[in-house]
Amino acid sequence: GLFVTDYFTRTPRKLSPFRSFASIELFHFHIPEDTVIAVWNLITFKEQGGTFGDQCPDRSITVYFRSGAPSVINPLHTHFPRDTAVPGSFALTLTWTLPNRTTGVFNVTSPLPGDWFLAAHLPKDEGKISVKGLYEECQYLFQPQLIVQRLVNIAVLYPGHVTEQSMAPHNRSCLYKVFVPSYTSRVLVEVLRCRGAEGCPLWLRVRAKAPPLHNSTTLDCREHTPCQLAQDLPFWQHWYYVLVEKHPGVLGTISFQVTVQLTDCSRPSLARPPFLPSGASMNMPHSFGSAGGLALGDSPPPTSPNDTKQPVPIPVTSHAGERCWPVRPTLRNELDTFSVHFYIFFGPNVSVPPDRPAVFVINLLPVLDSGGVLNLELRLNVSSLCGENVTVFGCLNHEVPLTSSDNTSVTCETEFLAGFLLSVNATVSLSRLRIPYPQTGSWYLSLRSLCATEHGFEPCTNVTAEVYLRAYLSPCINDCGIYGQCKLLRTNNYLYAACECKAGWNGWGCTDNAEAFSYGFQLLSTLLLCLSNVMFVPPVAIAVRSHYLLEAAVYIFTMFFSTFYHACDQPGIVVFCIMEYDVLQFCDFLGSLMSVWVTVIAMARLQPIVKQASVLYLLGAMLLSMALQMDRHGLWNLLGPSLFALGIMAVAWTARTIRRRHCYPPTWKRWAFYLCPGALIAAAAVLLYAFVETEENYFYIHSIWHLLIAGSVGFLLPPRAKPSRRLGPLPRRKGCGYQLCVNEQEELGLVDPAVASINSICTS
């Protein structure tokens, strides 16, 4: 056949350490039909400061693959919530082969068509809280690329028709496909009139959705006469691929005929008619996908070599499970994103008769519904059992209902199907099932009632059980509980939801309490973070005593909003919010930066120049508000205003030092007992905040930060300048009828314990 190669790529993304599914990077691909091989090229490289990160440490990268829906991963080996089904996925770990780059390859032969999802993450780290912009962070970028090779013009088999084929010596196999519509209970493929070699040395392989593999359903035509391969309970609304392959070492041309027979479960004694009046009758695509292929409603093509001939009647025997029952649809009611309820007509109470199952279908839309959680709940009405020991079994299967005629069977699995089993009885009247990230398409729920006896389960007589059925789609499991937050995430145009846990809780639904914080620990951490702000009371008292009323107001503002911000910011249940979280956070950050600003400006001693000091206070408030609105966690939000204020203070102190010709402040006591201790305390607080703080020690390291910062303010805040009682003659500079007075004691930074008051403006 002819091959077509398609290439797909995605933009590189920065990977994060795994904490929950909300921290992974998800990539969405679509594999076309008839693909024989898919190759993922996984490119990973390091960056640091805009250049290649050769000095960055090697960290392993884990990549997960799954068809139909995102992978449900559990790298931390946490516990899943009860009644949760965990679908499987492929996993691959990438190791580094070069200092700053590595490449991995993942091949899938005959992949399933449709949506494929890749999830990638870094290993869990120690949870260090780093200041943004303090140093160049190592970034690990991941870029997946997909190359697919697909066959075109695959020959299509029509049910009930014989296709002749001659396999040349240089050919090893022939590939066909047939479409299986709904309500098909059996697919029978047969190889007829094998000529050209002794004993028909052919392999017959059949697989649903994709071309067969070496481990697909296989039949050796040399050992089986007639060469018939049957599959019961096939997937509905899918292509089935038939591969006829020669044995190794067989030479010469082999000719044979291939035919397919589909059994309609609504008429188990009859095969499906080869041609129907319209495409809707078989619920098949209007085009089979083959060039010049037969469209439904057309007449059969004329007989030609290697083509379809007139239909040949094939006897079909009745097999167990070929009879199907009516499938009751459900009404889809969309309330919100991933919030969909499926209502049953004449429900939600369902009657399950003793002689036949009750079958329902739940349709999940492609892409839109695979990012949530499919929830199913069965509740038995015990009063409807009339005292009988009845058990109602429910089988949830994807793409085909499991309605075996063997009523004593209590399994939901066959050789080709794997479903989910639910059961309710008089003792356990409630059963739940949760499927995170379900595959889209049709899900069939089959309910049947059996009576328990000494010899096992047997069909009941004259007992119709009544079951309450509830099916719905939700974003997360139980909305992640009280210790988690359900987040709606997006990757390109694909939406999905995941839980982000807090207070030490883990798991897919934040139900794993192995590392959870106790209530006492949560209360202690909240009290430490809130009550440590009381350390601002001494600076407020010092500021009021020294008549620094504006500074005192800023400290009170900081103390108030820092207290209630940390009371609202707690991860557990000990939480108290007086305002919206964003408002409290903004006010806390603004108060902290304004405290630094006004303290340094006060140390510059610009109070005599009243207008200039007021301008600096107002300018600082406006600039800090703007900076916090741009980026609240940036390093320069703290360093920028602090360095600018320190520059103003340095200029003011230098000017006084030059003018007075001695160091300012002039007393060694001021340096030894106030300025140096205050600076050391502030430096220690900054070092703790920038380099020591982690998620585990946050509650007490950040509390120490509060204590140190408030303590440093008490040391650094300058005292109020108080003149001596003996005042010498003041320089008199007249202007506009007023005498301007200069307080020389304040200029020197001296403090006299004697209280004396002067007026800075004297009348002439």
Could you please describe the fold and organization of this structure?
The chain is built from ten helices and 36 strands. It has 764 residues and is an alpha+beta fold. The protein has four domains: 151 residues, Jelly Rolls; 110 residues, Sandwich (Jelly Rolls), CATH 2.60.120; 146 residues, Sandwich (Jelly Rolls), CATH 2.60.120.680; 198 residues, Rhopdopsin 7-helix transmembrane proteins (Up-down Bundle), CATH 1.20.1070. Strands 1, 2, 4, 5, 8 and 10 form a six-stranded antiparallel beta sheet that branches. Strands 20, 24, 26, 27, 29 and 30 form a six-stranded mixed beta sheet that branches. Strand 4 and strand 5 form a beta hairpin. Helix 2 runs antiparallel to helix 4 and helix 8 packs antiparallel against helix 9. The longest helix is centred in the last third of the chain and has 25 residues. The termini are far apart. 33% of the residues are buried. It is found in: Cell membrane. Belongs to the TMEM8 family. Keywords: Cell membrane, Membrane, Transmembrane, Transmembrane helix. It is a multi-pass membrane protein. This is TMM8B protein.
Short description:
Belongs to the TMEM8 family. By secondary structure, the chain is of the alpha+beta class.
List keywords for this structure.
single chain; 764 residues; alpha+beta; Jelly Rolls
Largest sheet: 6 strands, antiparallel
* Count of the domains: 4
Give the oligomer, counting copies of the same chain as homo and different chains as hetero. single chain
Structural class: alpha+beta
Number of strands: 36
Distance between the termini: 110 Å
Gross CATH architecture of the largest domain:
Up-down Bundle
The fraction of residues assigned to DSSP E strands is 25-35%
User: What is the overall shape?
Assistant: elongated
What is the CA-based Rg, rounded?
39 Å
As residue ranges, the low-confidence spans are 273-322, 744-764
Membrane topology: Multi-pass membrane protein
Family: Belongs to the TMEM8 family.
Organism: Catharus fuscescens
Transmembrane segments: 516-536, 548-567, 573-597, 609-628, 634-655, 671-692, 698-717
